[in-house]
Amino acid sequence: MPSVFIKTYGCQMNERDSEAVAAQLVAKGYTLAAHESVADVVLLNTCSVRDLAEQKAIWKMENVAGIARKEGRQPILGFMGCMAQSRGKQLVEALPDVDLVLGTQKFHRAAEYLDELLAGRQTQIVDTADEDGSQATIREHLLTGAADKKSVTAFVSIMQGCNQHCTFCIVPFTRGEERSRTIPDIVAECRELVARGVREVTLLGQIVTSYGKRDYPLREGKSAFVQLIEAVHEIDGLERIRFTSPHPKGYGDDLIEAFGRLPKLVESAHLPLQSGSDRLLKLMHRGYTRERFAEIIGKLRRVRPGIGLSTDIIVGFPGETEADFEETLALCRQLEFDLAYVFKYSPRKDTPAAAMPDQLPEAVIEERHQRLMTLTNELAARKYDALIGSTVEILVEGPSRKNPARYEGRTRSNKIVVFPGSERHQGQLLNLRIERTGSFTLYGDPAVIGMDEEVSAGPALLSA
Ligand code: SAM
Asked: Is 404 a residue whose pLDDT tops 60?
């Protein structure tokens, strides 16, 4: 059977889609190639959120095709995902070596189309059409974790699409309208994962807090998303629940109250701020003010002291003045995120912001990007340093990515802890004493805390 190599660009949703495609192909007998140079099929799962992500995938494909041609190989080459969706057949016109273009509602058709191409029944396939029910097709998992042990964490795709139409964002065009899976279907998938050894799930969607809005009415004041979290929380053997990516508007009191009530919902939340200027938030079509945003953070911190908070910020949105930017800096100083992803604004096809006046020069965007990164990294480092000497619960995920001689796990507040563990710790909840910090990493010392000391007590919960 043929071998396949899949390279993923972009977010966790894309990683999850790639895993589902890989699992689908493995079930058909494909093997997973360790490198593109030895694969019969090379698939690039693409991202369109910024232009650079699109360019990287195009360069990669040109490079893979060029080397294969030189070596006299003819692998099947395919683009999948967001850029495949937005550029469609332009991709095969520009890159004639490409055989397959698979849109965001077609991942489940990968095996069927590859069969056609490998058998020579078709020479090129481009499918970016909408497909009813496609949101429920990202279901199969590989769960091949580190050191040949099964993964203890898994991503679960709960919905597809986005209806927010932020003026900078291409996602509604690449992922379509919001479509949610059903609660029983998602719970069944989570149960199967737990039966296979998973202890932590991350519920995924473009805007998870909008989950099921059209399908599930409010119940006792609780949104469909909170109803889903409650249902997943019931699963015996599951230890931790995370979710991403939410919208700040989705942090209603029902969700904040759920953080105070549901111990498996870990002390970690992502709230994409985008800008600290109310004027820009309005131009971005975000639907909240800096005051409302700060209020949500305050409520979350009251309900879960020590909660880890991360954010996304765009610098250089059209018309951003130095005063707007300083408001972003000031809000970051006030809110002290544990982690900030800072993005340089990138004009995207068909988005309203791309046509707005006052697009900023690259040099201004670059300079602001540097300043904000410096500030947010400094603030984050202080958060990490403050944990030195404390004891944290980690779920051990496997060998450390930074130092494979060591093991690593994640705290409930979503911080990586590296410690001198071994294979037998994989999948365990451990308490470790934090001895020192590195760049966005904590180092735990097992000499201080017994390595087999499993956690029994749950986290302290406060009411909203
Ligand atoms: N759920 C998120 C939200 O509330 O906006 C959207 C997730 S988006 C795929 C990831 C991040 O990419 C966004 O939060 C935003 O900061 C960034 N992003 C999106 N469009 C962008 C653009 N045109 N230029 C730069 N960054 C962008």
From this structure: yes
Output the CA 458–ligand 1 centroid distance in Å.
Answer: 34
Closest C-alpha residue for ligand 1 atom 5: 272
Q: Which long-range contacts (CB under 8 A, 24 or more apart) does 162-166 make?
A: 162/206, 162/207, 162/210, 163/207, 163/210, 164/207, 164/210, 164/247, 164/285, 164/287, 165/285, 166/274, 166/284, 166/285, 166/286
Q: 221-239: per-residue pLDDT in tens? A: 999 999 999 999 999 999 9
- State the distance between the two ends of the chain, measured CA to CA, in whole angstroms: 56
Rounded distance from Cα 77 to ligand 1 centre (Å): 28
Structure tokens that stand for 416 in this block = 């990586």
| Lookup: tokens for 86 | 């937005």
Q: How far apart are CA 310 and CA 369, in angstroms?
A: 17
Mean pLDDT of the chain: 94
Q: Residue 446: what pLDDT?
A: 73
Protein residue whose Cα sits closest to atom 25 of ligand 1: 345
pTM above 0.90, yes or no: yes
In terms of Cα–Cα distance, which of 121, 76, 119 is closest to 101? Answer: 76
Longest dimension (CA), the chain: 66
**Separation of 314 CA from ligand 1 center, angstroms?**
8
Can you give the pLDDT at residue 27? 95
CA distance 102 to 125: 8
Q: Which of 409, 460, 445, 26 is closest to 267 using CA atoms? A: 460
Asked if the peptide bond before residue 245 counts as cis, ω within 30 degrees of 0, the response is: yes
Beta-bridge partners for 5: 42
Task: Inform me whether the pLDDT recorded for 206 exceeds 80.
Answer: yes
Whether the Cβ atoms of residue 347 and residue 357 lie closer than 8 Å to each other: no
Whether residue 26 is predicted with pLDDT greater than 50 in this model: the reply is: yes
**Which sign, positive or negative, has the C-alpha torsion 321, 322, 326, 328?**
positive
**CA atoms within 13 A of residue 84's CA, in its CB half-sphere:** 28
